[in-house]
Each structure stands twice: as structure tokens, then as C-alpha cells.
Design goal:
about 290 residues, alpha+beta
């Protein structure tokens, strides 16, 4: 719990009952009460907006699957370029804005290694400002949409979040923003349909792959992803091709040498334990 939330003592006799915890959306509570009773409540996930609880809505399955593809791609990038760490699991962070205080729980958040506040291994909330926040948009109602598309966009920009992504199955709802030097968000989506992160240099993806959830193993030869999608496979394939080329060169040299000594294709095939057709094909190309 942030130090700012410890102004008033909270005792267990103030704990809400189960029904109150389950149905607290819109209820006014202090920040200390939020951290003590609502922040880690497992059955309903609440954020805190300047004294009022806000229940986090649920996204549809297709939006979740698209979000999960992006999470897998990001994990693969950070595996080979460990410049940051991810957290999810409803990790919240406190935003002390100019006009109010809010506590948000992004669906996925990233902290760069050079962030002045590192992620703690045993922390259950984050005491700094995330570098990247990702939300899987719920469009179950207008208020849920506006919270992600309007309110959090404003709050994250003011708090100093470097990038903010909103993921949804509808292409018109996809949003990829980077905070400029003027403190305002601007789009990261290029005219070619590619998102290129500034906060995570080298992390990039085509929104067509995002929406189509292209299998990652199908992307490993795409120049857009080659630097971080299964590079070990690419290295193994290159090593295999080099080994095959060396084997072929050795075979050609051996066949050519024996043929120069007067052996016919059948004798060469038997001497080198090769298929006769292969020997003939080698000789035909000489």
C-alpha cells in the first residue's frame, strides 16, 4: 500500500461483507479502504477513481484472444531483448494527477529497465509509473468504453505513461499511442498498418497479424519480426543449410575426382555409397 494511503487506521471491523464486496461498483470509499479491502478482492476487480470504486468490465473472447497474441509477441520480444519486464495479474499503480488521485489496473503493463522505480519481485502493486499500459477493451456499455478510450487516455498521458495500447477485435477500436514531448499522446500506427514502439525500440507488429492472430512460427521469416520471433529457429535453419551445402560440395568434389580417374557412375555410386541417379545428376551438371 502506498504511504499516502495510510493516513487513517483501518481495522478488520470495518471490512465489508461478501455481498458488499461483490456489488461495490460506484461506491465511495477512502483510498485506505480501497487498498485494505477492495484492491485484492479476487472475485471482482476494482479500480479507484478519486474516492469512487469502478468495477473492471470483462472483454469478449475474441478480444481476449487478440490481446493474448500481443502478449505472446511481447514476451517473445523481451525474451531476446530483455530491456523491460512485464506484469499483469491486476497489478495496480497510483496516479497522483493535478486534480485528483486514481488507481488503475492495466490488463498488461511494462516497466523498462531504466525506469527509476523497478518492479519488485514480491510487490503486489507498482509504486512508479508504468512505461506501457495495455487494455483489452470491453464494449459492453458506453461507460466501459469511455473509461479506456477517454479517461485512461487522459490520465495516462498526464501521469507520464510512455505508451498506451487499446486492443479490441474491431479494427476501428484499436489504439496505439505514444506520449510526445508536449505530454500528449500521438498514434504509433503507421500508414503501412505497422505499429512501431518508441518505448520498446525494435518491438513492432502488423495489425493484420494482430487481428488475424497469425501463428508466431509463421512469422519467423518475415523481416518485420526476424529480430525477435524465434531467432533460434532461424539460426538452426541457417546452420542446417550450411551443413547441407558443405555436404553437397564434398559429394560433388568426390564424384568429380573418381570420374576423372575413370570410374563409371555405377562404380562411383558404390564407392561413395550414393544413389546412382544422384551421381548421374552430379556428372550431368559438370
Amino acid at each position: 500500500m502506498p504511504a499516502a494511503a495510510k493516513a487513517l487506521p483501518i481495522t478488520e471491523d470495518l471490512r465489508p461483507n461478501e455481498d458488499e464486496l461483490m456489488n461495490a461498483d460506484g461506491r465511495r470509499v477512502s483510498e485506505a479502504e480501497y487498498w485494505a479491502f477492495y484492491y485484492e478482492f479476487p472475485d471482482v476487480h476494482y479500480e479507484w477513481n478519486n474516492g469512487r470504486l469502478e468495477e473492471k468490465p470483462v472483454s469478449d473472447n475474441l478480444t481476449y484472444w487478440i490481446y493474448n497474441w500481443l502478449r505472446a509477441l511481447l514476451d517473445e520480444f523481451l525474451k531476446w531483448h530483455p530491456i523491460a519486464r512485464c506484469t499483469a495479474l491486476e497489478h495496480g499503480f497510483r496516479l497522483a494527477l493535478s486534480d485528483r488521485v486514481v488507481i488503475r489496473k492495466p490488463d498488461l503493463a511494462v516497466v523498462r529497465n531504466d525506469n527509476p522505480v523497478p518492479l519488485g519481485d514480491l510487490d503486489r502493486s507498482y509504486r512508479g509509473v508504468f512505461d506501457l499500459c495495455i487494455e483489452a477493451l470491453s464494449d459492453s456499455n458506453r461507460a466501459a468504453r469511455e473509461r479506456d478510450e477517454v479517461e485512461k487516455r487522459r490520465d495516462y498521458a498526464q501521469a507520464g505513461v510512455r505508451e498506451y495500447y487499446i486492443v479490441h477485435h474491431n479494427p476501428e477500436r484499436l489504439t496505439f499511442l505514444s506520449r510526445g514531448s508536449d505530454g500528449r499522446f500521438q498514434s504509433l500506427l503507421g500508414p503501412d498498418g505497422i505499429v512501431r514502439s518508441w518505448a520498446l525500440p525494435g518491438f513492432q507488429f502488423d495489425i493484420r497479424d494482430l487481428l488475424g492472430r497469425t501463428p508466431l512460427d509463421a512469422l519467423r521469416h518475415d523481416p518485420l519480426y526476424q529480430a525477435f520471433v524465434y531467432p533460434q529457429w532461424q539460426q538452426e535453419e541457417q546452420a542446417r543449410k550450411q551443413a547441407e551445402a558443405q555436404r553437397d560440395a564434398t559429394r560433388i568434389a568426390a564424384v568429380t575426382k573418381l570420374h576423372a580417374l575413370g570410374l563409371d557412375p555405377m562404380q562411383i555410386a558404390e564407392a561413395l555409397d550414393l544413389d546412382r541417379a544422384l551421381v548421374a545428376a552430379i556428372l550431368d551438371t559438370r
